[in-house]
Amino acid sequence: TGSSRPQRMLKAVQKNATKGDPKSVISAIDYYCRHKEWAMNVGDDKGLILDSVLTEVNPSTALELGTYCGYSSVRIARLLSPDSKLITIEFNPAFAAIARQIIAYAGLQDKVILVEGASGDLIPKMKERFGIKSFDFVFLDHWKDRYVPDTKLLEDCGLLKKGTVLLADNVICPGAPEYLKYVRNNPRYESRYYPSNLEYTKVEDGLEKSVFLE
Ligand SMILES: Nc1ncnc2c1ncn2[C@@H]1O[C@H](/C=C/CNC(=O)c2cc([N+](=O)[O-])cc(O)c2O)[C@@H](O)[C@H]1O
Ligand SMILES: [Mg+2]
Q: With 90 as the cut, is the pLDDT of residue 9 above it?
C-alpha cells in the first residue's frame, strides 16, 4: 500500500525543514500543502491570526482539540513562554503518530503533551491527569459538530476561567453554525469574528475568538 497524506507531509518536513527550527517546519508544511497536496492545517493566513491572539493571551496552559498532523501544535507551542504547556487531543492513532514526529522534529516535544483519545472522554480527566486547574487558551479545530458539546463540557468541568480565550477554526468553511449561535448569543462570552480564507485557497473562512466572562 502507498503512503498516506500525513506520511507524505512528514516526509516533506524531514526533507525541507531544519531540525529544531519550528519556523522551518511550519514553512515546509505550508509550501507542501499549497503547492503539492492540500491538507486541513489551519495554514499560513489564519495562522497569522492564531499567532497574534496567542501573543496577546500568552497562555500558561493551552488546549488544542484535533491535533491532526501537529501543524497548529507547532504554531502554538513555538510561541509559549518557557514553563507553559500545550495539551493537544487527537483520537486517530495514525495521525497522532505523525504529529508526535512533526512536533519532535520542531524540537517542541517538551512543551507539548499529545494525548490520544476522544475529547469527550479526555476533557473530564484533565484535572486529575495533568493537574490542570483551568485553561487560558483553547484552540478548537476538530470535528465541527463537536465544538458546542466540548465547549459545554469545558464549562461543566470548570476548566474555563474569567478571561479564558476560545479560538475556533473553520467557523465559515466547512462551518460551525451551531457554535457561532452558541457563543454569539451568550452573555457568558464576548465573541469576535476574524475574517480570513480557508487554508491554501481563496475560499472565505475565519476564526471566532470568544472570551469567557464567567
Ligand atoms: N472528538 C475528537 N477527539 C479527538 N480528536 C478528534 C475528535 N474529532 C476529530 N478529531 C481529530 O481532529 C481532526 C479533525 C479535524 C476536522 N477538521 C475538518 O474537518 C476541517 C475541514 C476543512 N475543509 O474541509 O476544508 C478545513 C479545516 O481547517 C478543517 O479543520 C482529525 O485529526 C481527527 O482525528
Ligand atoms: Mg481547521
A: yes
